[in-house]
Amino acid sequence: MLGGEEEAIAGALDAAVEGGRAAGAKGTYMVAPAGREWLDAQYPEAFADFRVRALWNWRDMEHPTITQALAIADSLNGLPLSRTY
User: Fold this and answer.
1) Sequence-separated (6 or more) residues with CB below 8 Å from residue 68
2) pLDDT tens string 75-85
3) Helix or strand (DSSP H, E) at 23
4) pLDDT of residue 3
5) Whole-number Å distance between alpha carbons of 77 and 34
6) What is the b/e burial string over 49-85, where b = at least 16 CB atoms within 10 angstroms of the residue's CB?
7) Nearest 5°: phi and psi at 61?
8) CA–CA separation, 79 vs 14, rounded Å?
9) What DSSP designation does 2 have?
10) Environment class of residue 22 by beta-carbon count within 10 Å: exposed (0-12), middle (13-18) or buried (19+)?
11) Cα separation of 15 and 19, whole Å?
12) pTM
């Protein structure tokens, strides 16, 4: 829920708790089994656009160089792309 308005996020979390998809206490939330099923059902459609453009699909690379492969691996691990390879 990164980047969302705090009020909207709080409302979504409260709705998830009320709907049995999450448990919440003292500002901490965790997914309930029903929530896991809901997320699993939503995932394919919610991330369809990302799958199409993921990793190698940004640009065709049948044989990426080691530098390209390391840059992609670093980005998957959340590391900055400013590192020298």
Assistant:
1) 61
2) 777 666 665 55
3) strand 22-25
4) 73
5) 29
6) eeeeeeeeeeeeeeeeeeeeeebbeeeeeeeeeeeee
7) -140, 90
8) 33
9) T
10) buried
11) 6
12) 0.50
Q: Which two tokens stand for residue 82?
A: 């400013």
Q: Tell me phi and psi for residue 3, to 5 degrees.
A: 85, -5
CA gap 23, 16 in Å, rounded: 8
Of 34, 33, 72, give the one whose Cα is nearest residue 55: 72
In this structure, what DSSP letter does residue 77 have? T
Which residue is it, tokens 């900055």? 80
37-78 pLDDT, tens per residue?
A: 988 888 888 777 666 555 555 555 677 778 877 777 777 776
Other beta carbons less than 10 A from residue 20's beta carbon? 12
Q: Give the rounded distance of the alpha carbon of 19 from its chain centre.
A: 22
Residue count of the chain? 85
